[in-house]
């Protein structure tokens, strides 16, 4: 009865299988797991209502009942009929025996959590990553269809079959790849003619029409088992022009949800981008060949423009080369948000001699080339070369804008994989920064995380080897797995050991360096997997937290056991965790860059975020070939903080940030945090602005919290200036008094304002 009561009141998805027939009982939270089987399955033998998956579920239940050993499984696959069709689903499961008073086992307590969405999402993300990589390696347009088919054939659970139709050089629609039907990725002519209806749908979609559906039986000679009766027919475009169609088979073992449909659309979008890039490259190559044959100078200019990646770079390089190409006195190139003027010397005419639009491959005007004639104006070949050059600039501007759009998307994705806010702990202040690499658009594998189990703060920073969506996906998996191990209560060493075991068992192993550090006031426990040592900062002294490698990267040695190292962290000390992008400098070298980092870490700063600002300032101002992640922690007194600030109103932001971190760490409510921040900021602003002849240009602020009461004291060293009654500041004390209990002490040594506020329940 205790087990039944526990099951019924729990919000977790719980079922109980009782007796030798495993009769099923479950709570309301479990009902979505079985769908339409409720309420018929209640109290009935499990074999009758889980018949479709009994070959998996039955042995699990029998084993737990027979041996008394619990069973745990993550992302365990099952096949369930809960909505009128067989569905592939995944669960985290826990099966525990229920013992009678005499020790015998007469039931099984089952806690489940459905992970189908996560498993499908990660699988589809891998498919898209592999598809992007395989398409990028295709040598020509004919290879694109075969490459897409080879990739999709590895993911038949989502795409049972696919047909890739692309237009050839003559504009004819031809099957260039198919998956799920014959040898994987085979291309060439159709194995059998399409039905009349399917042909009409395919022609319409490939000609620029919207996505549609077609009967699977009209597409294939024999419909394989597990394939839905209708397939999606999705358009494939190249720079907004029709280029073909992608036929995607739908699995009957998966519901056609919005996520499933979005995945199919993304597959078609990946193929469209690849076709567009391939055709743009072919057009660009053809144009480059023509210009090389006409004029060697134009070839030099084309090479220079093609190396420029951003819009600003394209505009600058184009203007400089156009001067020499046309013998011009002055050239101005403009594009969206960019302008560059190049001076060729000599007298220029009042009006430009040549004005050429810079257009993309679709004919859209992206900018303008304006040329003022010089003394050696070449009205013949020079202007013809300029026209060719203008076309090349337009194509490159289009590519640059695509590059910049992808870079923005990559940056957004990078930040979405990082924590939106950092938890706080009494006795600790944390700050972070993430700078994406600026040298390419690929998503990096750097990450950080801050976790707050009961009474402690866990800091994690890591770097997955590699670039691109695959590295980002691996990063997300490692981050979530390590967070789960930490929340389960494993110490840093054991958490990394389990993470390494997980990575090494994956179908596609990855490698990553990681530091996991657990902090409780005054005490440190940490472990490292091949990651650069954090810096320990005590005033002007900066040392490495550990001076030798504590373990290899995760994924490198399957049987590796990582040990937990213990240490102390005194109040006022700081820790700086970072990824290698912070110290990778080709001009300085690693040792010199690490020395520069140590020097930057000793710069004075009242808040730990000042430390982060100081160490990233160098890399933020220059191009970065790698991402940079920084995480910093300062050990503070748990129930008190004190700041000494210069009498500068711009520094009040440091006070507000430190006060907010302190209050949030003590779980103070939002209303109290807002009111106290306003009141203390106002008192500090008065202390900065009002004193007459202060002994020193600084103020002191002290805040304590005890017994649900916050006491804040602000001190200055000047004589009191009576308020004039004019302006907002004349009402400052009244505002503070409205937000708490206020007392003011004025002496010849200065003024002390004390605010007391009882926290709301």
From TrEMBL:
Signal peptide: none annotated. Pfam families: HATPase_c_2, SpoIIE. Keywords: Hydrolase. It comes from the Bacteria. One of its GO terms (molecular function) is phosphatase activity. Residues 429-635 form the PPM-type phosphatase domain. CDD domains: HATPase_RsbW-like (cd16936). This is Serine phosphatase RsbU (Regulator of sigma subunit).
């Amino acid at each position: 009865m205790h087990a039944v009561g526990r099951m019924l009141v729990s919000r977790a998805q719980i079922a109980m299988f009782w007796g030798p027939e495993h009769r099923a009982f479950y709570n309301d939270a479990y009902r979505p797991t079985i769908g339409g089987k409720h309420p018929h399955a209640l109290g009935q033998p499990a074999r009758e209502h889980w018949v479709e998956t009994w070959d998996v579920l039955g042995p699990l239940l029998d084993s737990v009942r027979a041996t008394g050993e619990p069973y745990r499984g993550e992302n365990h696959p099952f096949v369930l009929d809960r909505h009128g069709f067989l569905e592939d689903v995944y669960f985290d499961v826990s099966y525990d025996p229920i013992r009678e008073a005499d020790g015998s086992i007469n039931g099984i307590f089952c806690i489940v959590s459905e992970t189908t969405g996560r498993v499908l999402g990660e699988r589809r993300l891998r498919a898209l990553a592999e598809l992007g990589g395989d398409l990028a390696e295709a040598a020509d347009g004919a290879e694109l269809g075969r490459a897409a088919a080879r990739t999709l054939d590895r993911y038949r659970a989502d795409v049972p079959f696919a047909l890739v139709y692309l237009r050839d050089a003559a504009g004819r629609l031809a099957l260039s790849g198919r998956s799920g039907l014959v040898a994987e990725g085979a291309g060439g002519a159709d194995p059998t003619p399409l039905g009349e209806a399917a042909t009409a749908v395919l022609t319409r979609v490939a000609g620029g029409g919207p996505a549609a559906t077609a009967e699977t039986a009209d597409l294939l000679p024999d419909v394989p088992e597990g394939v839905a009766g209708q397939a999606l027919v999705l358009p494939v475009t190249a720079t907004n022009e029709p280029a073909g169609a992608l036929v995607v088979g739908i699995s009957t073992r998966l519901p056609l949800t919005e996520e499933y449909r979005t995945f199919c659309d993304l597959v078609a979008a990946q193929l469209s981008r690849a076709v567009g890039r391939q055709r743009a490259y072919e057009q660009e190559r053809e144009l480059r060949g023509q210009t090389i044959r006409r004029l060697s100078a134009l070839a030099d200019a084309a090479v220079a423009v093609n190396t420029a990646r951003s819009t600003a770079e394209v505009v600058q390089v184009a203007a400089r080369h156009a001067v020499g190409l046309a013998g011009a006195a002055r050239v101005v190139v403009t594009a969206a948000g960019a302008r560059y003027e190049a001076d060729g010397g000599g007298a220029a005419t009042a009006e430009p001699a040549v004005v050429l639009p810079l257009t993309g491959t679709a004919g859209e005007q992206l900018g303008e080339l304006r040329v003022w004639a010089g003394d050696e104006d070449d009205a013949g070949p020079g202007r013809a070369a300029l026209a060719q050059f203008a076309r090349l600039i337009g194509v490159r501007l289009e590519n640059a804008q695509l590059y910049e759009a992808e870079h923005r998307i990559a940056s957004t994705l990078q930040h979405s994989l990082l924590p939106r806010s950092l938890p706080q702990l009494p006795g600790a202040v944390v700050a972070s920064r993430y700078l994406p690499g600026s040298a390419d658009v690929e998503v990096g594998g750097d990450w950080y995380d801050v976790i707050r189990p009961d009474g402690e703060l866990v800091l994690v920073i890591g770097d997955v080897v590699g670039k691109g969506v695959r590295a980002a996906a691996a990063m997300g998996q490692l981050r979530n797995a390590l967070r789960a191990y930490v929340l389960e209560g494993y110490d840093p060493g054991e958490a990394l050991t389990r993470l390494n075991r997980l990575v090494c068992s994956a179908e596609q192993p990855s490698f990553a360096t990681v530091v996991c550090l657990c902090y409780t006031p005054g005490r440190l426990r940490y472990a490292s997997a091949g990651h650069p040592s954090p810096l320990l900062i005590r005033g002007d002294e900066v040392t490495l937290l550990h001076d030798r490698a504590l373990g290899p990267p995760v994924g490198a040695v399957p049987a590796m056991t990582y040990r937990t190292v213990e240490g102390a962290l005194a109040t006022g000390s700081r820790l700086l965790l970072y990824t290698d992008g912070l110290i990778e400098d080709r001009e300085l070298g690693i040792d010199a860059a690490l020395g520069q980092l140590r020097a930057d870490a000793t710069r004075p700063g009242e808040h730990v975020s000042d430390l982060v600002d100081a160490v990233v300032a160098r890399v933020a101002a220059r191009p970065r070939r790698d991402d940079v992640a920084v995480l910093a922690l300062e050990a503070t007194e748990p129930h008190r903080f004190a700041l000494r600030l210069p009498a500068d109103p711009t520094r009040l932001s440091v006070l507000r940030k430190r006060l907010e971190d302190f209050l949030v760490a003590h779980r103070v409510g939002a209303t109290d945090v807002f009111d106290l921040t306003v009141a203390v900021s106002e008192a500090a602003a008065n202390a900065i602005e009002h004193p007459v002849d202060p002994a020193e240009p600084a103020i002191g602020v002290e805040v304590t919290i005890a017994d649900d009461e916050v006491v804040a004291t602000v001190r200055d060293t000047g004589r009191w200036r009576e308020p004039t009654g004019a302006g907002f500041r004349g009402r400052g004390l009244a505002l503070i008094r409205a937000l708490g209990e206020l007392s003011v002490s004025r002496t010849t040594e200065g003024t002390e304002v004390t605010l007391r506020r009882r926290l709301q329940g």
